[in-house]
Amino acid sequence: QITTLINHKDKPKRSDKTLQAIQRVGQAVSLAVGRFVTVGEAIANENHELKEEMSLACIEARRAGETIAKLTDVTSLDHPESDSHITIFTDKTAVVKAARLLLSSVTKVLVLADRIVIKQIITSRNKVLATMEQLEKVISFQEFVQIFSQFGNEMVEFAHLTGDRQNDLKDEKKKARMAASRAVLEKCTMMLLTASKTCLRHPDCESARINKEGVFHRMRVALEQVIEIVTDSRPNGDSEMSPISIYSGIREFKSKVEALRENLYFLSKENLSTMLEVVLEHTEDFTDSAYTSHEHRERILELSKQAKMELEQLVSVWMQAQNQKTKDVMEDLEVAILKTCQCMNELKREVHSAATSLAADLLKYHTDHMVLKALKITGVEGNLEAVAEYTCKLSEQKEQLVELCRLLRHVSGTEPLEITCIHAEETFQVTGPQIISAAETLALHPSSKIAKENLEVFCEAWESQLSDMSMLLREINDVFEGRRGEKRVYLSLPRPGKHNANLKALKPVKLDTEEQAKIAKLGLELHLLTSDVDSETEKWEDQENEVVQHGQGMSSMAYSMYLFTRGEGLLKTTQDLFHQAEIFATEGTKLASALPAFSAQVHDDDKPLLLFEAEKLISMCRQLQITAKASVQGKSATFTKVDACILKTRDVMTLLCQLLALCCRLLRKSKSGNGCLKPAPPWREDNIRTGTNAHNPERRAETFGVKTLENHVTNMTFLESK
Predict the structure, then answer these.
(1) How many independent structural domains does the chain possess?
(2) 328-357 pLDDT, tens per residue?
(3) Of 235, 262, 295, which marks where a domain is finished?
(4) 273/420 same-domain check
(5) What is a biological process (GO) this protein takes part in (predicted)?
(6) What are the Cα distances from residue 38, in Å, to 58, 160, 351?
(7) How many angstroms separate the CA atoms of 627 and 620, rounded?
């Protein structure tokens, strides 16, 4: 709105329509500022330490908004230039000045509000730490129950605050780090409960004490990491230095090599050689690993040697080209660039194959969890010798998995996935010794139910991380094969020459800021509906059910359309959106087609209702497809089509949410309580969307296991009964 005013062109003749439009814009700005300032003032009243600064910024913003409203109050003036009243026409610099003051004061309010949010998170963290100290020192079971109840409530508050903050983070790397830290807090909450109970039951047991101390330490580290991300700081002023991966090294090296086509002098041959040496040094992680196959090791060594030779040839031609830019020399340079890049691509492919094939083999080998099962059995038997034997095997397994995480990090392809690999490595490093100490405690006290429960909790954490590794492996393969991007949403972008014969003839259009603002409300409704649909699908025990899978796919696509309304995500143009709407409608039709078969599982009385809803869904999806395929010309018509597609998608999602709930309810009814429903899922930060049924981490952030924590708090009576 401000930009519209500033860019307004002075014309000798001004129609009533123009004058009214200018006044409306000025009033809109003033009203918007008023609403904004009201919120700012409310925040100021609740936070006395920043009240003065915030209040001043709000006063400045309100004053600037009112000034803009006065300067645009031009409708009553037949001849504004002859009137003593100053307007936008007589003094445009006044509008510019007011606009600058407004933007400055609004920015100040936002910065102060952000400081308050950060302070809230730090205060919440401090409360959690203080309560943790009390929990660590407690010696009475009754006192522990009371303090842990308080701790649970404080963790719920911390969960909400950090969940909102994670959603607000723009940096994908920080978002991934936050997700990893919060995942640690989720898993450690239950560990802290059982480890503390075990220590209270067996106060003289050294292994129980070590087990408990490990949990407390890990929670403190995770809390500190959250604060580092929130405040954008590092302890002792250290800068964040994550080790370079082979993928990122190859990517940077290739970009420099290809840049030689444009500029022969922008870097030295020594710099290029150093970059290659760094990449080849990292390949030693593969060639030195005991888990890399002989074939992969030989091939990586061979490609490393070839890369050096190709670079030598490239440098030779490059130096020659600097002296004489003849056609033959430049052609030789192009050939050398292509051969060098091809060699690096082959090296990248080989290390990817080495890491992912090892991962597939190891994960398959460890799916039976034989070592964990053996530890539980021998622990209950009190067989210390057998426990010692199996803890050695678990340590070997841990080393294998840690090595695997390091190799996968090299080929992860994106920074968020690199961080996920690092998080997985740390989890195996820490959880392995904790399982060992828990197993030793059980072996020393084989009749202890709480020691047995404690071992179960740590084993579950290990199994959960192994399950997450399978998901991570799929993600890494998807990135390598180009099936997904960093936003982790459903990918169904149009391909030239496919899907629609008119695609080539249509010019892709991007929405401008004003148009995006208009569809923002619809987009928000779509976002809320995707959350509702996801909640419904999570209630199903059979996640492989065809109805559930189609529902998850539709939710994922609707989420990518929501991102489009914000100018984010992988749908970059309106044509991308229209194609996505077509695919969404097709998926909805598939779901409706699956309902007749599904109805065979429900009572005969309920079938008509289900089939009636299926017909409604087919009709709505058909309408959406017609709208998405309709040909339009011009910016206005294109925007109208965008609005219609999102509106119809919203309506389909509303029906889908009702339909999923109905299906699950009918299935539960037909099974007479045998259960198609499962309890609310635990904290999961890495439910990443893969294919059609993945989940976007941005949207999972708010869950942060709040329900899990609240369950801990409400179930405290169990502790008292023990």
Answers:
(1) 5
(2) 888 888 999 999 999 999 999 999 999 999
(3) 235
(4) no
(5) cell adhesion
(6) 8, 24, 57
(7) 11
